[in-house]
Amino acid sequence: MHTETTQWAAVDSYFEEALHLNDPVLDHALARSREAGLPPHEVAPNQGRLLQIFAQMARARRILEIGTLGGYSTIWLARALPPGGRLLSLERDPACARVARRNLETAGLGACTEIIEGDARDSLRRLVAEGAPPFDLIFLDADKADNPHYLAAVLALARDGTVIVGDNIIRGGRIADPAAAGQPDVRGARDFLEALGRDLRLTATAIQTVGSKGWDGFSLAVVSR
Ligand code: SAH
Ligand code: DHB
Ligand code: MG
């Protein structure tokens, strides 16, 4: 196991070098997040680039992110926006929101992004109540236990063709371990995946990944209505 995780991380490092996945703005954002004591829960650079590519493939003009942390994934996603595009990111922790705003400002992305502070459940309810226009791409990356709730909520903010990406659905394999079935994040991830599978409006899949973040993965769904 130890050898494997070391090799996975080494391959990720090689990708970062070969594909030029890091740059000073991203490095600086990570450094600031560490200085502020935020946990290292950001997507890996190759995953950030994958998010950017998804957003570009979807020609996303409006992006919704749930779970900002220090804004690292936010930078990747916002870089895919065309002129006039907009990204909203929902974050409960004021300290995270503060770091993220600063990181986005430094990245030159302050004007096209907005961090909405507060519990994402409340922010989502408010967005729906306000009649927010639909989002083209939605990235679910907050507390995993609440993913089933987030899925139901964001479907009210989606249109035909909206792409929904869910992070961290594998939990080091605990997702399929009967002994872990009672753990809240596993319960949330399983209920979320099963809701994706059940919903006739969604075409969904899930992918396992290994790398610097260990054994994890993401779900991908497209809405048709
Ligand atoms: N997307 C980030 C990582 C997010 S980590 C990146 O890849 O760079 C998960 C974040 O979700 C944390 O910052 C946490 O504070 C936030 N979060 C957890 N529960 C939340 C909730 N109920 N509402 C809003 N944010 C929440
Ligand atoms: C962890 C990783 C994540 O990508 C995330 O969004 C939340 C937590 C983790 O490693 O625990
Ligand atoms: Mg995540």
Task: Provide a descriptive summary of the structure in words.
- With 225 residues, the chain is α/β, with parallel strands linked by helices.
- The protein has one domain (2-223): 3-Layer(aba) Sandwich (Rossmann fold), CATH 3.40.50.150.
- The protein contains eight helices and seven strands; from the N terminus they run αααβαβαβαβαβαββ.
- It has helices spanning 2-18, 24-35, 45-57, 72-78, 94-106, 120-129, 147-155, 184-198, and strands at residues 62-66, 86-91, 113-117, 135-140, 158-167, 202-211, 214-223.
- α4 links the parallel β1 and β2 (86-91).
- α3 packs parallel to α4 (72-78), α6 runs parallel beside α7 and α7 packs parallel to α8 (184-198).
- The longest helix is centred in the N-terminal third of the chain and has 17 residues, at 2-18.
- The protein is globular.
- It binds S-adenosyl-L-homocysteine, 3,4-dihydroxybenzoic acid and magnesium ion (MG).
- 3,4-dihydroxybenzoic acid binds at residues 41, 67, 141, 167-168.
Strand and helix order: HHHEHEHEHEHEHEE
Low-confidence stretches: none
Percent of residues in helices: 40-55%
The CATH topology assignment is Rossmann fold
- The outline comes out as globular
CATH architecture: 3-Layer(aba) Sandwich
**DSSP, total strands:** 7
Q: Could you name the CATH class?
A: Alpha Beta
Instruction: Give the mean pLDDT.
Output: 97
Output the CATH homologous superfamily.
Vaccinia Virus protein VP39
Continuous helix count: 8
